[in-house]
Each structure stands twice: as C-alpha cells, then as structure tokens.
Specification:
Elements lengths: L1 H19 L32 H10 L4 H19 L3 H11 L4 H22 L3 H18 L39
Helix pairs in contact: 3-5, 4-5, 5-6
Length: 185
C-alpha cells in the first residue's frame, strides 16, 4: 500500500513541475523600455552631491565602531609606535643602563628615566589625541609600579640621636653581654 501511495505522489509532483514551466510568458523582456515620453528619472539638481569614496573612508575611520573595535584600533596604533621606538638609540641606551643597575633603588630610578624617554618618543610620533592620552595613562601606570610606598625610609641624621631599642628589656635578669674582642698576638 505504501508503495502505491509513494508512486502516486511522485507522478503528481512530476505533473506539477511540468505545469510550472508554462506559467511564464515566452516573450518576457527583462530590460525596461524607455520612450521619449517617459525618460528615466534623473537626480534633481537641488539634491546635495554624494561624497566621494575617499571622503566616506575618512568618515568611517572617525566614527566609533564600538568599544572593542576602538580598543583594537588603539592597540594596533600603539604596537606600531612601539616598533618604531624600539630601536631608537636613546631608548636602547636607557634600557641597558637600567638593566645594569646594582641595587633595587638604583634600578627603579633608572627604569623611571627609561620610561620617561620611551614614552616621550612615542608621544612625539603619535598622531591622534586619543593615542597621546592613552600613552599618558600607560606611562603613569609604569611609573606607579616603580614606587614602593611600604619601604621604610632611611633614618635621617636627626633621628639617629635617639637610641635604638635593645633586644632585651632594661632591668631584666639577662644582661646583654658583648662577646670578647679577639686579642692580637
């Protein structure tokens, strides 16, 4: 029974497809006919001229495409500036000087000088004010990492007059005894 119903459906489908081709006229002209009485519509002279392609490109470069696109554009511009400044002789020399520091304090001071030189060069090459503002933020962030607010300051000469606290409290049964000095024979 299924075979007969499947066969009837196939014949009906073929008949419908064959009849579908007859629906269109055989002499259809796809091109619009223009007559002298009915000219094609022209652009009115009073309408503003359309901008050229280069002007449209500039308009789309200036408009925001979203936070992600703006961040990506800033990152690409920052990388270009970074690549241009990387081989600058003053920047390379400041970096080598910072790497050759012997103490932590000296290295932090030299890194501060390096970041100042590095970001000054990048700002000189930056074209947009947004990029210059971003570079100011990056520079401030790098310089802020060099500050160590929890490090104790070195004692000043005025505070050295006060005695340093001893390891044992005064009047305790254990007195601080200094080790004997080595004798010279």
């Amino acid at each position: 029974m299924r075979l007969i119903s499947l066969f009837v459906c196939a014949i009906a489908g073929a008949a419908l497809m064959a009849r579908g081709q007859d629906a269109a006229q055989s002499t259809v002209d796809l091109h619009a006919k223009t007559s002298p009485e009915n000219p094609p519509a022209a652009i009115p002279a009073s309408s503003p001229e359309l901008p050229e392609l280069s002007q449209l490109d500039e308009i789309f470069k200036q408009t925001s495409l979203g936070k992600t696109a703006d961040a990506y554009r800033m990152h690409v511009e920052w990388r270009k500036l970074q690549n241009q400044v990387a081989n600058d002789p003053a920047v390379v020399a400041a970096k080598k000087t910072a790497q050759s520091a012997r103490t932590d304090l000296e290295k932090r001071k030299r890194l501060g000088d390096y970041y100042k030189i590095y970001y000054e060069r990048m700002q000189a090459l930056a074209a947009s004010p947004e990029m210059k503002a971003a570079l100011d933020g990056l520079k401030a962030g790098h310089l802020a990492m060099l500050v160590q607010p929890r490090v104790r300051p070195t004692p000043s000469p005025a505070s050295s007059a006060t005695p340093a606290p001893s390891a044992t409290p005064a009047g305790s049964p254990i007195e601080a005894v200094e080790p004997p000095l080595p004798s010279s024979r």
